[in-house]
């Protein structure tokens, strides 16, 4: 198992444990409705065709998490992912615009978005799961469809 897989596996275990503790902490989560816009940074691990030409990248994004009804939030993400070229290969910058929803169970959430990704010129489904405590969010997101795919670990703050 590579370090990328073990890091992702460890993060998933933390997310699942957070789901149990997060639902118990739902009543202690004040002010969530007031904080719907945020910024995030992420580390992205390419695989499939993108892994042939690039290395582990990073990204920044603007986020929206708007509570629609109890347990359901509307979400959006606008950002850029930068993947350094591998060896003599060129760097790859991928801009994205995604929108969708999430099921919020206390601090734990899981959701899905769809969006367009430049440079690779494709629409993709982006499943995600994570923890959100008031202003702070940690999530694992997958650009799951198409030849150029990656997994991102995102940390964000809402204003």
Structure characterization notes:
The protein has 159 residues and is α+β, with helices and mostly antiparallel strands. The protein has helices at residues 3-24, 49-53, and strands at 37-48, 57-69, 72-83, 92-105, 108-117, 122-133, 136-143, 148-158. β7 and β8 form a beta hairpin. The longest helix has 22 residues, at 3-24. The protein is elongated, with a radius of gyration of 16 Å. Residues 23-31 have low confidence and may be disordered.
Helical content (DSSP H or I, runs of 4+): 10-25%
Characterize the biggest β-sheet. Answer: 8 strands, antiparallel, barrel
Please tell me the overall pLDDT. Answer: 85
Broad shape: elongated
Overall radius of gyration: 16 Å
Largest beta sheet: what is the strand line-up?
Answer: 1-2-3-4-5-6-7-8
Give the helix tally. 2
* End-to-end Cα distance: 38 Å
Helix/strand-derived class?
Answer: alpha+beta
Strand content: over 45%
Order of helix and strand elements from N to C terminus: HEHEEEEEEE
Low-confidence stretches: 23-31
Q: What is the total tally of β strands?
A: 8
């Amino acid at each position: 198992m590579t370090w990328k897989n073990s890091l992702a596996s460890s993060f998933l275990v933390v997310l699942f444990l957070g789901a149990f503790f997060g639902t118990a902490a739902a009543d202690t989560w004040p002010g969530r409705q007031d904080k719907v816009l945020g910024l995030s940074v992420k580390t992205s691990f390419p695989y499939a065709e993108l892994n042939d030409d690039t290395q582990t990248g990073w990204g920044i994004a603007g986020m929206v998490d708007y509570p629609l009804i109890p347990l359901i939030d509307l979400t959006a993400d606008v950002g850029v992912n930068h993947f350094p070229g591998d060896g003599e290969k060129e760097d790859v910058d991928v801009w994205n615009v995604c929108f969708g929803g999430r099921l919020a169970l206390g601090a734990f959430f899981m959701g899905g978005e769809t969006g367009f990704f430049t440079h690779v010129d494709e629409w993709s489904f982006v499943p995600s799961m994570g923890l959100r405590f008031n202003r702070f969010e940690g999530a694992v997101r997958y650009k799951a469809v198409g030849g150029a795919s990656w997994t991102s670990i995102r940390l964000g703050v809402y204003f």
